[in-house]
Amino acid sequence: MAAHTVPAVPVQGAQVVGRVAALLRLVGRKPEGMSLAGLVRESGLTRPTAYRLLTSLAAEGLVEHEEATGKWVLGPEVFLLGSVAAARFPMEDIARPSLRRLAAETGESAFFSIRRGNETVCVLREEGSFPVRSFVLHEGVRFPLGVASAGTAIMAFLPEEEQNVLLTDWEAHAGDFAAGHPAGVVRENLEKARLAGYSVNPGLVLEGSWGMGAAVFDPQGRPAWALSLTGIEPRFRGDRQEFLGKLLLEEAHRMTSRLQRSAPN
Predict the structure, then answer these.
(1) Which of 193, 218, 222, 224 is an S-S bond match for 199, by CB 3.0 to 4.6 Å?
(2) What is the torsion angle, in degrees rounded to the nearest 10, for the CA atoms of residue 143, residue 149, residue 154 and residue 156?
């Protein structure tokens, strides 16, 4: 009997999948969603193509169009899919206690981000008690690796060759963040993070909004997640950084140890 082969995905079909995925990521960047004009601008798609794909996604319940605002938001089907995926990746159960301790002990907002390819995605947040907050980071926000405190903490502990690939074509990788994150500054921040164990973002994403992060390692010893704290600059000055960094490292180590223990032998 002849062996069955899986037919290759046509290029056109692969392009459609990529475009759909890109639109879903863009819609999910902000809880309030995005306008069609914003999606066209960010995706690079033509208006008719973007609208056709969005209406098809809406028919499947993956996105919805809010008449009151004119924005496209994630639909209920995404929630259902996410609920199923959460059972396979129970990171919230592991991360949430650390976020609560960090927020309680520091008063700052605490976040948990995951690595997805060459990006970090913020997936969990715990608000601190300090009344003045930074709103740069929230669930669904994506940054290129090496940008913001979580991405710097993760990239700092990647193998040198992986770092060099990203740094060699840094402007293309960082995109709109390249202007505020020159390659030389990024290299310096990565080196500082390796030495200290935690990263510091001195307002590079938004002036006056600082952050610090620590990587969480998977059972194979790869930096796959990060804990971070964000707030206004006066709360992250040098005399307080050591205190915040110590807490971040303690919680990151606690999570890493728990993941090591739970990994199958």
Answers:
(1) 193
(2) 120
Tokens of 207: 């002036």
In this prediction, residue 192 carries a pLDDT of: 96
The phi, psi pair for 159, rounded to 5°, reads -55, 150
In sequence order, the β-bridge partners of residue 223 are 217
Contacts of 196 (CB under 8 A, 6+ apart): 245
Query: How would you label 96-131 residue by residue, b for 16+ Cβ within 10 Å and e otherwise?
Result: eebbebbbeebbbbbbbbbbeeebbbbbbbbebeee
What's the whole-model pTM score? 0.72
Query: Distance between terminal CA atoms of the chain?
Result: 39
CA atoms of 119 and 220, how far apart (whole Å)? 20
User: How many residues in the chain?
Assistant: 265
**3 state SS for the chain:** CCCCCCCCCCHHHHHHHHHHHHHHHHHCCCCCCEEHHHHHHHHCCCHHHHHHHHHHHHHCCCEEECCCCCEEEECHHHHHHHHHHHHHCCHHHHHHHHHHHHHHHHCCEEEEEEEECCEEEEEEEECCCCCCCCCCCCCCCEEECCCHHHHHHHHHCCCHHHHHHHHHCHHHHHHHHCCCCCHHHHHHHHHHHHHHCCEEEEEEEECCEEEEEEEEECCCCCEEEEEEEEEEHHHHCHHHHHHHHHHHHHHHHHHHHHHHHHCCC
User: Amino acid letter at 232?
Assistant: I
Q: Smallest Cα–Cα separation from 215: which of 120, 125, 140, 126?
A: 120
> Could you tell me if 210 and 200 are in contact, meaning their C-beta atoms sit under 8 angstroms apart?
yes
